[in-house]
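User: Study the shape:
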Amino acid sequence: MAEMFTGFVEEKRIDVPATDGKQGGAYCSGAVPGIGPFQLLNYEGTKRDVATTAHESGHAVHNVLAYPKGYLQYHPPLTLAETASIFGEMIVFRDLLKMASSPNERLSLLMSKIDDTINSVVRQCSFDRFEELAHTARKDGELNTEELDKFWMQAVEEYYGKAGEAGAPFDDYDDIQHLWAYVPHFHHVPFYVYSYAFADLVVGTLYHSFQTTPDGFEDRLLDLLAAGGTKDFATALAPFGLDPKSPSFWEDAIKAHLGGLMAEAESLAEELGYMKNA
């Protein structure tokens, strides 16, 4: 995968800088086997930009490995579409942790990763809930802005609680009712957002598998990516000893991924004197 990334750089397949007139965000276009992939970034040198580069490069690697399956079968199912990208982020995140110059920097990186994980899982699931509400109501006729605003706020409160309640993460929800309008996935790739939540938890379990059973892991991962759309979710994860049909799969994934990060952060926070051992 590292060699492939170097190839992307040498072949000038990554448009890196943020420039005037360039659309914000980042994207990997790999829709044409044999011609793609190409990455479009807005790189300014931050740690988040490094993670974004790893994310989009993961997509590029996934594309190249799966291209031999042909145009109709190279694209993975949505349940696996973000696996390579988020795994790329995890690899780079662990490297950044090793490179941290101080315990405080290490803790900062861990807390940022925890925030990102919660964002990927809880927030994206709330996005998916909004789409469910909107598309279900759309069966009965066209929707106006006020109705979409209502569905958005319903999804927010279902996942985060009512503003100001004990345990709720936000004091107020002022002026957020129109935020559904800025999410490009709602307009261009409906119901894609849940794949981020899937992938974040799946990558957490895969990385745990890598840490506990490293022998043969690389080959298993590359085989999964090379399968493109020819394997369903359960079949693709079977070689790793993972069964997503098991009722405990997602709970175990949260414990292995988010729980592991939390344990590292809490241990370091105690060491630095930011919290006392209960």
